[in-house]
UniProtKB/TrEMBL annotation:
<feature type="region of interest" description="Disordered">
    <location>
        <begin position="219"/>
        <end position="238"/>
    </location>
</feature>
<keyword id="KW-0732">Signal</keyword>
<dbReference type="InterPro" id="IPR051558">
    <property type="entry name" value="Metallophosphoesterase_PAP"/>
</dbReference>
<dbReference type="InterPro" id="IPR004843">
    <property type="entry name" value="Calcineurin-like_PHP"/>
</dbReference>
<protein>
    <submittedName>
        <fullName>Metallophosphoesterase</fullName>
    </submittedName>
</protein>
<dbReference type="Pfam" id="PF00149">
    <property type="entry name" value="Metallophos"/>
</dbReference>
<keyword id="KW-0378">Hydrolase</keyword>
<feature type="compositionally biased region" description="Gly residues">
    <location>
        <begin position="224"/>
        <end position="238"/>
    </location>
</feature>
<dbReference type="GO" id="GO:0016787">
    <property type="term" value="F:hydrolase activity"/>
</dbReference>
<dbReference type="InterPro" id="IPR029052">
    <property type="entry name" value="Metallo-depent_PP-like"/>
</dbReference>
<feature type="domain" description="Calcineurin-like phosphoesterase">
    <location>
        <begin position="49"/>
        <end position="116"/>
    </location>
</feature>
Length: 238
């Protein structure tokens, strides 16, 4: 059973009722196709606390399997790989990460942790760099970001797992897509370029990640009680 909500002439959001799921939860998982990108929104809270993980997982797999988009981007609140909390969101990680890899998801945009990280290999930054040097295909790029004033401190994996990380820093991102390239940039709220990565798609569909040679500032980290700009840090420990 499907419904479509027309937003002007440009955007169609398609919503499928998930088998066995409460009406209020069903409408919070949906996708939209826009200019060659399929954006899929998942309700991680329903998946972890409202007994809706199995139905969302089936719907996710079907929605990705049916996608003819050149790029697939997932949006969810709780991160697969956390930059603040001691443990990853294991239930979502076990259910959804294998599908992201199998179905060729390009990016997973997440929040919840009130810090910034970009992860291209769950085994860590060094593993990702080694795989790229060998020409390995790129799996999903996992991004966690924060725009508001509330901050959490980084966990003990944050300096070795992400390719790029920041604490106590409000951020925003831009994503530009074309036929053979997805261009991702992250900026501080003052407009300083902080992170940059491109996913390049070959003619055979293989995707690789490239980090452009753009000048980036040092990592924004807290030192003791001081934040990255020298003022008292505001991040709380999770």
């Amino acid at each position: 059973m499907a419904a479509a909500l027309e937003l002007g002439a440009l955007l169609t959001i398609k919503r499928r009722r998930l088998y066995g799921m409460h009406e209020d939860v069903a409408v919070t998982s949906y996708y939209t196709d826009y200019q060659g990108v399929r954006f899929i929104v998942l309700d991680g809270t329903a998946g972890t606390s409202l007994d809706a993980l199995d139905s969302q997982t089936r719907w996710l797999d079907q929605t990705l399997a049916s996608s003819t988009a050149r790029w697939n981007i997932v949006v969810q609140h709780q991160p697969i790989y956390t930059c603040a909390r001691p443990n990853d969101t294991e239930a979502l990680k076990a259910a959804w990460e294998p599908i992201y890899r199998a179905r060729g998801v390009d990016m997973v945009l997440q929040g919840h942790d009130h810090c910034y990280s970009r992860i291209t290999d769950g085994e860590g930054k060094a593993s990702g760099e080694a795989r790229r040097a060998q020409g390995a295909a790129q799996g999903p790029v996992y991004v966690v970001s924060v725009a508001g004033p509330k901050m959490y401190g980084l966990n003990n994996r944050a300096l070795t797992q992400p390719d790029r990380v920041a604490a106590d820093t409000q951020m925003y991102q831009t994503i530009d897509v074309e036929a053979g390239r997805l261009r991702y940039r992250a900026y501080t709220v003052s407009g300083v370029l902080y992170d940059a990565a491109d996913i390049v798609r070959a003619a055979d569909g293989t995707k690789t990640l490239r980090e452009p040679a753009e000048a980036l500032p040092p990592l924004r980290l807290c030192d003791g009680g001081a934040g990255p700009d020298g003022a008292p840090g505001v991040g709380s420990k999770k």
